[in-house]
Design goal:
By secondary structure, the protein is mainly beta. The protein has 1 helix and 2 strands, in the order E-E-H. The protein has one domain.
Length: 49
């Protein structure tokens, strides 16, 4: 198995006491394609800030 090019572990983010992300983890390895999909306001962009 190849080494991870990107590894995200246990990301958390809250806004005014509202937990938007809790314990999000993933990794991307060479040759993989991943997608993050969801409706507007589903904290997709927040994950990468």
């Amino acid at each position: 198995m190849s080494e991870a090019l990107l590894k995200v572990e246990r990301v958390e983010k809250s806004f005014g006491g509202v937990m938007a992300l809790r314990g999000v983890s993933f990794e991307v390895r060479r040759g993989q394609i991943k997608a993050l999909i969801g409706p507007n306001g589903a904290v997709k962009t927040t994950l990468f800030h």
